Amino acid sequence: MPTLVHISDAADPRVAPYLAVRERDLVGRRGEFIAEGEVVLRVLLAGGARAKASSVLVAENRVARLAALAPDLADAIPVYVASQRLVDAVVGFPIHRGMLAHGMRPDDPSAQALLASLPERAVVMVLFGIANHDNMGGLFRNAAAFGVGAVLIDPRCCDPLYRKAIRVSVGAALKVRFARLAAGEDALALIEAAGFEALALSPAGADPVSALTRSPRAAVLLGAEGPGLPPQLLARARTMRIPMVEGWDSLNVAAASAIVLHQLMS
Fold first, then answer.
1. Which domains does the chain have, with CATH numbers?
2. How far apart are CA 4 and CA 7, in angstroms?
């Protein structure tokens, strides 16, 4: 296990990246991220993550749990240890999970470059207007579970590497590759040029998802709950619906994505 560095002062500059986590979340981290909790740290440290940890902050009562991750902790990553009370003071709220990591986010490729890097058989998700971090985390968790090769997000989507989104995704947001579409970039033109069939999910979709079969290259288009996908996108894609009981036509977007992805992968 790397050498533990004990911290006794919340003003210690070595833990400055962890100060006032929620306030920094609101304004954006400008190329940084905070990962929270043992499950997420396990994903981050075990390899295969796109991002890398630069340091770890752990409460004294969680050191034994951190020891289980020791084989994945590089000696060069400092591990700061403090009392639970001091960790709470640094972070700015009671952090019951007791473990955090700070890192620098990787450079995001362009959407075109990301699509070009995918294998001959691949499924991608394209997200429009997903502004809720719980939904974003759930979508990335499903993307990892069903082997989605990449996620494209439009300019109105929230950041998948926001702390809460990472936590809800149980670390999947650190593993699944994604790219943010530029303002005005035509998502459908991009995916079609890369050989993907556009499958747009809508309560008014023409075909039930049960009609889907595994396609060599499929792109699942998902919109925010409420407004859904823009009509101009629906007009250019194959539209799919999830049949439900009469009088009900809506599922949480993450739940809907799981149904569609399972159907594509079966």
1. 4-104 (3.30.1330.30), 111-265 (3.40.1280.10)
2. 10
